[in-house]
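Try it yourself: sequence plus zinc ion, in.
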Amino acid sequence: MSDYLIKAMAAGGQIRAYAATTAAIVEEARQRHNTSPIASAALGRLLTAGAMMGAMMKTAEEKLTLRINGSGPIGGLTVCADAASQVKGYAKNPQVMLPPTPNGKLDVAGAIGAGVLSVTRDLRMGEPFTGNCILVSGEIAEDLTYYFATSEQTPSSVALGVQMNKNNTVKHAGGFILQLMPDADDGIAEALENKIAALPPVTTLLDQSNTPEDILQLLLGDHSLQILSKTPCAFACDCSKERILAAIAGLQREELAAWIEDQIPVEGVCEFCGEKYQIQPEELRRLFDGKSDA
Ligand SMILES: [Zn+2]
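Structure, out:
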């Protein structure tokens, strides 16, 4: 089971398309953060979007951060992606549980609540740029569709899905993003809307053994689909002991002094991947000395 992403175009470049299968990413996030089924679905959808939006970036150095801050019990989601579709992310309250919706689905919108989606693009030159928009549904795919239309002036269709096994591991995850370029004919938008409306949910398509290529073929087969690339995507975190130490170095002198006095190792945890780092009293002492020199 390895995840990958397809980049494609159709209608002679009037449509840009991305599709991905991300079950391994979402399962790794589930294991690292011990997410409940709702949190797995919510975080999994945003991780899937991150992998595809990473592939939209123009330079290899660019970084993308997707944040959802809502009033619901999940308390918010954060996902980071790079141009190679390496993604990492976490939910603030990963153990959130809610009753299913009336049609038996995981209540992702209920877990997220009302709030804001922010997309930060760091081009690694100057200040990062952030676009914000209100959540229109809390189901994430619709919210991103709205974000692309309002903040990036790009008519888009986003579909994201995560399906769990009975034992709460991840069975399927994936999605697609279709975007209309500014020169697209009006007729294309209408034809695509009809196609999308008639398409079963992404998780149903994946469950029927459709690949990302098959899904794009179903959507864009009538519009001269051209697959441009197939690349791996994965959960990956760039944390290290040095970064955790740098974060601790930002704390108050008094806190560091108290830890050193206690003579016990301190545990630093990376919030993105859950990796634990043991910081020894001697290392804290060196940090403390560094701070007193300053
Ligand atoms: Zn990490």
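One thing you can check immediately is this: The chain has a mean pLDDT of 93.
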